[in-house]
């Protein structure tokens, strides 16, 4: 890329027209490339941060972010949000300069998104935490319950079953994060890791405390209740896995083209006919199964809070689908068929 | 304790920095004026009740009983403010170009109303033994003076006839009343602790069908601890508001 980066001081220096430079004249038969000038202005202070001369019209926002990063090394590209309007949305990395509604002199407002962290790191720490914390309570490590119960084992088989289910759920999530998920945003704000981890870890500790407590009371309807609940739980786990596989297969690696998910040969994916985000539906089902299995009020709280959050996310995704695709199936609801 | 920006919707913000404001419609204004007048009157009743009881008894011990009912009624009535505030902010959020931004003062003041209601019902009402404590008088009198000033401030603001004295009082008295009220509240909760522990009030123990437990005693201790981060935030928020409001008027006066 042939550019000259000039630092524009806030002395009211106006954009100057491209001064003639000693370059070989382009051959007359070739297309004339109109180079762009890009100015980056701080969205809050309106200070001119950078003026880029001779920017190729086919360069993407990501290229511009990389250049900006060179002159301002503390703002790596993932942290930058470049906007056409200070109050608008950030431009996408793959947007090409010449397709944007700017003249040959483009002015972008820069917004610092704050320290970023890779989504994979966040997801993995969210999942390893509950896995390990639950096991700490399951094995009744010292200082949790009364000393006479240290390292003892529960006499209720449902407690062992619950541990297996809970651990299976998080191991599955970890494996999916490592091998299956494809997320379009590379990073998220750093504070998310604290927020998300506190949420998952605190709830996991709260649930695990009661389920593995020496005074735990097994479910009222006994074996029947537990067996039904386990079946629901496993059914929804398989369902959730199927959906994740299906969503992965929609995207080719590296491409950012969005496609509508459709039911496949796998019966667990037939729910796509009625729901936009069946992964959340199955997740809700799993936790409802777990609640019934353990008959534990904190688990019920966790399920309810999770349901509220997932509904918010599902509705957001559903809205995005309907905005992107004109022919999006109208029968689908965000998370619960026909209801929500 | 004066809660910033409750009771009216935009006028409390407008005395900080007069921006282009879409004031509430005529019906909403009428409702808010009536609401604030009623609340001012209610807290005046409480204030008069306290003074009369003091004069009759000759001492300031046990005055809580003389104003117990109006206190419960009018403090609980403040919950309406939370609903008013939330609904007006929902309107702003729906119309704003960047939804999802909730003013931090909504959280802080909503929390404050809830903490007041909590103290009225879940501590003072529930633990009979603390009702004769002096700390109760401490926070009740702090609340009474603050609320009378605050509600009359809102009333006059809504009618666009705000005497400077009321504005000054609202943004100055809190400097003393706020710590006074907080001290009273903390002492009251502290006084309630032994009774809560002894009787196991509002507590659920294991084992039980739902595998859940709740220790109200620990909860009260955690509540007291939570004052440490939260009270300074509210206090300094009010101090910042004070600088903005009173400095702004000073500039205006020197013109």
From TrEMBL, chain A:
Keywords of the record: Acetylation, Endoplasmic reticulum, Fatty acid biosynthesis, Fatty acid metabolism, Lipid biosynthesis, Lipid metabolism, Membrane, NADP, Oxidoreductase, Phosphoprotein, Transmembrane, Transmembrane helix
Cellular component, GO annotation: endoplasmic reticulum membrane
Subcellular location(s) of the protein: Endoplasmic reticulum membrane
Domain TECR-like N-terminal, chain residue ranges per copy: 36-112
Keyword set includes Phosphoprotein: yes
3-oxo-5-alpha-steroid 4-dehydrogenase C-terminal domain residues: 187-340
Membrane topology, as annotated: Multi-pass membrane protein
GO biological process, one term: very long-chain fatty acid biosynthetic process
Reaction(s) catalysed (UniProt annotation): (2E,7Z,10Z,13Z,16Z,19Z)-docosahexaenoyl-CoA + NADPH + H(+) = (7Z,10Z,13Z,16Z,19Z)-docosapentaenoyl-CoA + NADP(+); (2E,8Z,11Z,14Z)-eicosatetraenoyl-CoA + NADPH + H(+) = (8Z,11Z,14Z)-eicosatrienoyl-CoA + NADP(+); a very-long-chain 2,3-saturated fatty acyl-CoA + NADP(+) = a very-long-chain (2E)-enoyl-CoA + NADPH + H(+); octadecanoyl-CoA + NADP(+) = (2E)-octadecenoyl-CoA + NADPH + H(+)
GO molecular function: very-long-chain enoyl-CoA reductase activity
Gene3D superfamilies: 1.20.120.1630, Phosphatidylinositol 3-kinase Catalytic Subunit, Chain A, domain 1 (3.10.20.90)
Coiled coil (residue ranges): none
EC number: 1.3.1.93
Family: Belongs to the steroid 5-alpha reductase family.
The protein's name: Very-long-chain enoyl-CoA reductase
Organism field: Oncorhynchus mykiss (Rainbow trout)
Top-level taxonomy: Eukaryota, Metazoa, Chordata, Craniata, Vertebrata
UniProtKB/TrEMBL annotation, chain B:
GO biological process: fatty acid elongation; sphingolipid biosynthetic process; very long-chain fatty acid biosynthetic process
Region of interest called Disordered, as start-end residue ranges on this chain: 1-20
Pathway participation: Lipid metabolism; fatty acid biosynthesis
EC number: 4.2.1.134
Main location as per UniProt: endoplasmic reticulum
Membrane topology label: Multi-pass membrane protein
InterPro entries named among the record's database cross-references: Tyr_Pase-like_PTPLA
Reaction(s) this enzyme catalyzes, per UniProt: a very-long-chain (3R)-3-hydroxyacyl-CoA = a very-long-chain (2E)-enoyl-CoA + H2O; (3R)-hydroxyhexadecanoyl-CoA = (2E)-hexadecenoyl-CoA + H2O
Gene Ontology CC entries for this record: endoplasmic reticulum membrane
Subcellular location as annotated: Endoplasmic reticulum membrane; Membrane
Enzyme class per UniProt: lyase
Keywords: Endoplasmic reticulum, Fatty acid biosynthesis, Fatty acid metabolism, Lipid biosynthesis, Lipid metabolism, Lyase, Membrane, Transmembrane, Transmembrane helix
Keyword Endoplasmic reticulum: yes
GO molecular-function term, one example from the UniProt record: very-long-chain (3R)-3-hydroxyacyl-CoA dehydratase activity
Top-level division of the source organism's lineage: Eukaryota
Transmembrane segments: 29-53, 171-196, 216-236
Family: Belongs to the very long-chain fatty acids dehydratase HACD family.
Function: Catalyzes the third of the four reactions of the long-chain fatty acids elongation cycle. This endoplasmic reticulum-bound enzymatic process, allows the addition of two carbons to the chain of long- and very long-chain fatty acids/VLCFAs per cycle. This enzyme catalyzes the dehydration of the 3-hydroxyacyl-CoA intermediate into trans-2,3-enoyl-CoA, within each cycle of fatty acid elongation. Thereby, it participates to the production of VLCFAs of different chain lengths that are involved in multiple biological processes as precursors of membrane lipids and lipid mediators.
Protein name (Swiss-Prot/TrEMBL): Very-long-chain (3R)-3-hydroxyacyl-CoA dehydratase
Encoding gene (name): LOC110520266
């Amino acid at each position: 890329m042939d550019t000259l980066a000039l630092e524009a001081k806030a002395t009211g220096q106006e954009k100057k027209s491209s001064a003639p430079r000693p370059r070989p004249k382009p051959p007359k038969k070739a297309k004339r490339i109109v180079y762009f000038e890009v100015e980056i202005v701080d969205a809050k202070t309106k200070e001119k941060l950078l003026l880029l001369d001779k920017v190729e019209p086919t360069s993407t926002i990501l290229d511009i972010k990389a250049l900006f990063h060179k002159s301002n090394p503390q703002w790596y590209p993932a942290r930058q949000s470049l906007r056409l309007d200070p109050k608008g949305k950030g431009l996408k990395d793959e947007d090409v300069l010449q397709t944007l509604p700017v003249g040959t002199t483009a002015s972008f407002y820069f917004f610092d998104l704050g320290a970023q962290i890779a989504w994979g790191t966040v997801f993995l720490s969210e999942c390893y935490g509950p896995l390990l914390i639950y096991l700490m309570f399951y094995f009744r490590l010292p200082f949790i319950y009364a000393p006479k119960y240290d390292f003892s084992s529960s006499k209720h088989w449902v407690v062992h079953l619950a541990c297996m289910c809970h651990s299976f759920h998080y191991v599955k999530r970890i494996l999916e994060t490592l091998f299956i998920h494809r997320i379009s945003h590379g990073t998220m704000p750093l504070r998310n890791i604290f927020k998300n981890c506190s949420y998952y870890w605190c709830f996991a500790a709260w649930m695990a405390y009661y389920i593995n407590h020496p005074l735990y009371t097994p479910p009222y309807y006994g074996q029947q209740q537990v067996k039904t609940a386990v079946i629901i739980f496993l059914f929804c786990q398989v369902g959730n896995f199927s959906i994740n596989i299906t969503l992965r297969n929609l995207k080719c690696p590296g491409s950012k083209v969005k496609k509508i998910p459709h039911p496949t040969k796998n019966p667990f994916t037939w729910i796509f006919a009625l729901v936009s985000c069946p992964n959340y539906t199955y997740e809700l089902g799993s936790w409802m199964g777990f609640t019934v299995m353990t008959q534990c009020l904190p688990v019920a709280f966790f399920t309810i809070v999770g349901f509220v959050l997932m509904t918010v996310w599902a509705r957001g995704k559903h809205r995005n689908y309907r905005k992107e695709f004109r022919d999006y199936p109208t029968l689908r609801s965000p998370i619960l068929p026909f209801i929500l | 304790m004066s809660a910033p920006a409750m009771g009216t919707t935009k006028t409390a913000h407008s005395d900080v920095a007069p921006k282009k404001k879409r004031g509430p419609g005529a019906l909403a204004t009428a409702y808010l004026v009536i609401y604030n007048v009623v609340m001012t009157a209610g807290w005046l009743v409480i204030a008069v009740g306290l003074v009369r009881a003091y004069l009759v008894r000759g001492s300031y011990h046990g005055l809580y009983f003389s104003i117990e009912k109006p206190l419960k009624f009018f403090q609980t009535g403040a919950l309406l403010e939370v609903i008013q505030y939330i609904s007006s902010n929902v309107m702003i959020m729906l119309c704003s170009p960047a939804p999802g931004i909730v003013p931090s003062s909504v959280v802080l003041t909503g929390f404050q109303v809830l903490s007041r209601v909590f103290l009225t019902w879940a501590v003072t009402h529930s633990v009979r033994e603390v009702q004769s404590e002096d700390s109760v008088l401490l926070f009740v009198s702090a609340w009474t003076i603050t609320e009378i000033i605050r509600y009359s401030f809102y009333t006059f603001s809504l009618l666009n006839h705000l005497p400077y004295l009321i504005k000054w009082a609202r943004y100055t008295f809190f400097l003393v009343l706020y710590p006074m009220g907080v001290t009273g509240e903390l002492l009251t909760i502290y006084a309630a602790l032994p009774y809560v522990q002894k009787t196991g009030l509002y507590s659920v123990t294991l084992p039980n069908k739902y595998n859940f437990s709740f220790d109200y005693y620990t909860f009260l201790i955690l509540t007291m601890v939570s004052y440490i981060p939260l009270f300074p935030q509210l206090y300094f928020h009010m101090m910042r508001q004070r600088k903005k409001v009173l400095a702004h008027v000073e500039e205006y006066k020197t013109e």
